[in-house]
Amino acid sequence: MKTLITYSSRYGTSEKVARLLADRLPGDVHVQDVVERPDVDWAGVDHVIVGSSIRMGKIQDEMTAWLHINESELLKRPLGLYLCAGTPTAAERKRELEAAYRDALRAHAYFVEVVGSGYDFERMGFLDKAIVRMMAKQTVSSLDLDEAMLDELVESAQASLRTRSENP
Q1: pTM
Q2: Do residues 159 and 129 make contact, with C-beta atoms less than 8 angstroms apart?
């Protein structure tokens, strides 16, 4: 069973989550940045997890395009969807998830949730630092992952993999 974890990450949080998930999942797990490497060899991919960051209320354009191009392939496989976003309320998280992932993907996915947030000031430009300082009241780099949500994603993925291997 091969699991593909794809992500887009402006400042590294979604990538960190992808790598954490890869370490926790069994079997052959491949992690791929869709901005740097958008092409996927779908042969042999049994399971997919997609993650992205939110910036100014949107996921990266490259991820939006990748999701659109690969939607039919994603709908053929068990799918987990996550976002890294600093949204404090359930209503904001729901809004951002709906904006990031189309209805068909969300309806198909076994997991759709925000798993935490992070700010890496070393990788940010001046304008982004100013926005984060003003909006998020952050002045230093941070990583705030929801461990319970990450555990839920891993457990859901493992259950999906077990079900798929039992019913090929």
Answers
A1: 0.84
A2: no
